Amino acid sequence: MLDFLLSSDAIFALITLTFLEIILGIDNIVFISIVANKLPENRRKSATNIGLLLAMVQRVVLLFLVSFLVSLKTPFYTIDNSWLSISISWQALILFAGGLFLIYKSTSEIREKIEEPEHDAEGVKKKKVSSFKQAVVQIVIIDFIFSIDSILTAVGMTNNLSPNPDHALVLMIIAVVISILIMMLFANGIRHFIENHPSIQMLGLAFLILIGFMLITESAHLAHTKVFNNEIGAIPKGYLYFAITFSLLVEFLNMKLTKKKASVEQS
Predict the structure, then answer these.
(1) Distance (Å, rounded) from C-alpha 153 to C-alpha 165?
(2) Which of 2, 60, 249, 256 is the most buried (most CB within 10 A)?
């Protein structure tokens, strides 16, 4: 286990996944803040922290559930004709459905952020909170809604990293725990950074589209899909890591250039 966690693939996957978990959690932080702000000031921080801790437990439970379903590799239905051959298993089905969900969720989020940036926030603001317990329950419900894409992203980033599925599960749990702890410690700072650089969140949503397509191709590969006798192969994770790293590097260079331009104009 330790050898796997200290391997370059695992470390890179952990860093990338933790980053994506934090980026995907920004909307979560915003909505949690809206709910917490309805309480008296002395109860807001504790409501946020308790809600996030319960959310962390909730995500770990969901990881166990999804990991169990992904481990079911035995085909339960086979399609085999002259041009198409598929051996459908629960593993392939979950990855395929997860890929479709990530593509749908990310594209709809991008559209909503461009056309109706305050739509979801207004809906959360209208919900009444009359007690501390009710606020915590709302925070847990909000996190559950936002945790689906987070869990599927974790599965997509770690699937087939190791022949032992327990290794990937431990890596996902570590990433979730680190991201939640960072959000608890630096929630306001992270939120202000994203508000000042909204392109970072757009980039995170674009990465979800990549991960969604990767999950779909991986599900086809695991189902031994053949189209006109040509088998569909899996996309190596290295391509995904390179795309994410390169995109982030370009974005940070662009941010630095914009900041330098602004300082020159002011002087």
Answers:
(1) 16
(2) 60
Look over the chain and give the mean of its residue pLDDT values, rounded to a whole number: 79
CA separation for the pair 46, 44 (Å, rounded): 6
Q: Is the dihedral of CA 193, 256, 111, 107 positive or negative?
A: negative
Single pTM value for the model: 0.73
**DSSP three-state, residue 84:** strand
CA 39 – CA 138 distance, rounded (Å): 12
* Domain layout of the chain by residue ranges: 2-256
Q: Quick one: tokens of 202? A: 């757009």
Q: Residue for token digits 């689906």?
A: 148
What phi and psi, each to the nearest 5 degrees, are found at residue 86? -140, 135
Q: E strands of the chain, at which residues?
A: 77-80, 84-88, 226-227, 230-231
Q: Which residues of 1-16 are buried (b: 16+ CB within 10 A; e: fewer)?
A: eeebeeeeebebbbeb
DSSP one-letter code for 265: H
For residue 233, which phi and psi values (nearest 5 degrees)? -95, 165
Give residue 224's region: left, alpha or beta (phi > 0; psi -120 to 50): left
pLDDT of 39 reads 75
Cβ proximity of 195 and 249 under 8 Å: no
Give the distance from CA 29 to its chain's centroid: 14
6 close to 162: Cβ distance less than 8 angstroms: no
- Band (pLDDT 50/70/90 cuts) for residue 123 is low
Cβ atoms of 217 and 234 closer than 8 Å: yes
